[in-house]
């Protein structure tokens, strides 16, 4: 090690509404699988939750793709992304900023936020 590496721990509180009674701590740096539309495509839910070598403490969600499919109405109906995906661990969502730049031709930017046309 160079002595200049940075490491930390992210702490996520307990969430009784998603059946996570205990807080989750996530050491960083860490690999986060991407649940683009609220699910990991490369493995089953059972594998994700039960295999110790595969069970990540955190999953990354893509805000842009979640807004398109399943959509914010569906996520609201389920009470949020945790309930929609049945994921008891920590979730991190990105800002959607990359899509705002890369899909600028499909975006309308206002003081209220960014609205995209569906590609």
Automatic annotation (TrEMBL):
Sorted UniProt keywords: Zinc
Pfam family, one: TGT
Residue ranges constituting the tRNA-guanine(15) transglycosylase-like domain according to the UniProt record: 25-119
Entry keyword annotation includes Amino-acid biosynthesis: no
Lineage: superkingdom: Eukaryota
GO cellular component, as recorded: cytosol
GO MF term list: tRNA-guanosine(34) queuine transglycosylase activity
InterPro entries assigned to the protein according to its UniProt record, in alphabetical order: TGT-like_sf (IPR036511), tRNA_ribo_trans-like (IPR002616)
Keyword Aminoacyl-tRNA synthetase listed: no
GO biological process entries: tRNA modification
Protein name per the record: tRNA-guanine(15) transglycosylase-like domain-containing protein
Taxonomic placement: Eukaryota, Sar, Stramenopiles, Ochrophyta, Bolidophyceae
